[in-house]
Amino acid sequence: MKVRIGKYPSRWVCRIHTRYMDKKYGYVDWATEYSLVEKILEKIEDCVQWFYDYTVNLYYDHAKQTEKIRIDPWDTWSMDHTLAPIILPMLQQLKETKHGAPYVDPKDVPIELRPKKQTKKQKDMGETDDTHFERWDWVMDEMIYAFDCKANKDDVWMRFEEADEVRKEQERISNGFRLFGKYYESLWD
């Protein structure tokens, strides 16, 4: 197997006015009335961005992320073992660099991580509960654990003496893979 995936194509963006305003006022509290310099910078940014949009960005809007993938016949003989060492570091990196967390079904996490009753104000404001991010961390940890077992450890029945320990370990690994499937579309940064 050989996989090479390039960066996502990105558009050119003019940020002359935006950078000036961020530096002068901060990222949130821009003035509502612009000075002459700020108006000129805004017009320049608009003109340059228009130029970008109708020249170079036309190319980038249709560009695709480069992908070169070759699968050899032996890669699918035990595909779960083939994919585990690829997925594991991706999950680990995502956990380290994530900037948010998706909704996690409370049934998928231990009782102590389930949300408490939200106030009406919290619901109306769309606020997350106290354990929202902890639930996603727990789900990520379970997925990482399952793929780590598949990629780096011998089979579960070879690690334990008692059948009950084997069963519990296999249930945890299977649950990690189930969570991976359930939250597959939530694996974004």
Describe this structure in words.
- With 189 residues, the protein is mainly alpha-helical.
- It has 2 domains: 1-70, no CATH class; 76-186, no CATH class.
- 53% of the residues lie in helices and 4% in strands.
- It has a two-stranded antiparallel ribbon.
- Helix 1 (16-25) runs antiparallel to helix 2 (36-53) and helix 4 runs antiparallel to helix 6.
- The mean pLDDT is 89.
Quick summary of this structure?
This protein has seven helices and two strands; from the N terminus they run βαααβαααα. It is mainly α and 189 residues long.
String of helices and strands: EHHHEHHHH
**What's the pLDDT, averaged over the residues?**
89
Q: Cα-atom Rg, whole angstroms?
A: 24 Å
- Taking strands numbered 1, 2, ... along the chain, how are they ordered across the largest sheet? 1-2
| Strand portion | under 5%
Topology:
Blueprint lengths: L1 E4 L10 H10 L10 H18 L2 H7 L4 E4 L8 H19 L22 H6 L6 H21 L10 H20 L7
Antiparallel strand pairs: 1-2
Brief descriptors of the model:
189 residues; mainly alpha; 2 domains; two-stranded antiparallel ribbon; 2 strands; 4% strand; flat
